[in-house]
């Protein structure tokens, strides 16, 4: 099993080394990481280059124009060539909780024959379990009502590339501007992926992710009202249909 870790970063010089080191120490070695620098004005790019020097598993993309996390992630994910690659979203100010995270993911995919996962995370620096780290009710899966349910489809977020390929590019765009959504960006792809995967989406109880609440650039700190407004737009979008069973994983 091959993992593609997708990491977008902007002005995270205080934390980026922890992000990268948490990847490099993984017991499971079959992965590639695509790091996208979104025109950082601090030393983030230099840190990324230093921390990945000599390791061919890391590719750094240095943007020449400002984009945003969603646009960066879309571009990086679309560099994937195999339907069976497992995409792993790891933000540039967060990190894996242990050296066994990728190995744990591999076991879940192989045992459950799943197409995607969502899971459990720890909040830093408090060290407490994340408030969204919960399994959604079975009734939500049965009714395909993810968009109506409270948000619990959180870190660590992973999915097979073949599922991602079925997303429509127009659904990444804010209809009022024609640009990629700038807030609530994980909702943009998680809702349709869950709607297509249905019971092939699995919740992981084990904490695999550390979510950094110290970063002043966290969405809810920058503009919480905008975050909520975009969330509502995404929740009101047309649902995707459940995919038929297929022999994968």
Compact overview of the structure:
The chain is an alpha/beta fold and 249 residues long.
Keywords:
globular, Spore Coat Polysaccharide Biosynthesis Protein SpsA, Chain A, alpha/beta, nine-stranded mixed beta sheet, 9 strands
Describe the structure.
By secondary structure, the chain is an alpha/beta fold. It has helices at residues 16-24, 44-52, 69-77, 101-112, 138-143, 161-164, 185-197, 219-222, 224-235; strands at residues 3-9, 31-37, 58-62, 86-89, 95-96, 116-124, 128-129, 157-160, 201-212. It has a single domain, classed as Spore Coat Polysaccharide Biosynthesis Protein SpsA, Chain A. It has 9 helices and 9 strands. Strands 1, 2, 3, 4, 5, 6, 7, 8 and 9 form a 9-stranded mixed beta sheet that branches. Helix 1 (16-24) runs parallel beside helix 2 (44-52). The protein is globular.
Layout of helices and strands:
Layout: E1 3-9, H1 16-24, E2 31-37, H2 44-52, E3 58-62, H3 69-77, E4 86-89, E5 95-96, H4 101-112, E6 116-124, E7 128-129, H5 138-143, E8 157-160, H6 161-164, H7 185-197, E9 201-212, H8 219-222, H9 224-235
């Amino acid at each position: 099993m091959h993992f593609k870790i997708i990491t977008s970063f902007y002005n995270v010089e205080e934390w980026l080394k922890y992000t990268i080191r948490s990847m490099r120490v993984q017991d499971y070695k079959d992965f590639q990481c695509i790091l996208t620098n979104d025109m950082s004005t601090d030393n983030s790019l230099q840190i990324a280059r230093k921390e990945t020097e000599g390791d061919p598993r890391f590719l750094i993309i240095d943007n020449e124009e400002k984009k945003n996390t969603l646009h960066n992630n879309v571009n990086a994910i679309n560099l994937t060539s195999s339907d069976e690659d497992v995409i792993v979203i790891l933000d540039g100010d967060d990190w894996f909780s242990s050296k066994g995270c990728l190995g744990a993911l591999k076991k879940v995919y192989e045992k459950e024959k799943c197409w995607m996962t969502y899971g459990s995370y720890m909040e830093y620096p408090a060290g407490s379990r994340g408030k969204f780290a919960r399994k959604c009710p079975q009734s939500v899966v049965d009714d395909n009502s993810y968009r109506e349910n409270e948000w619990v489809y959180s870190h660590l977020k992973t999915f097979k590339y073949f599922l991602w390929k079925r997303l429509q590019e127009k659904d990444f765009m804010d209809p009022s501007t024609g640009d990629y959504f700038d807030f609530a960006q994980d909702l943009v792809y998680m809702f349709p992926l869950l709607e297509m995967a249905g019971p092939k989406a699995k919740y992981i109880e084990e904490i695999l992710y550390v979510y950094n609440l110290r970063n002043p650039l966290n969405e809810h700190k920058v503009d919480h009202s905008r975050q909520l407004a975009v969330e509502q737009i995404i929740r009101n979008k047309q649902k995707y249909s459940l995919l038929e069973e297929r022999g994968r994983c």
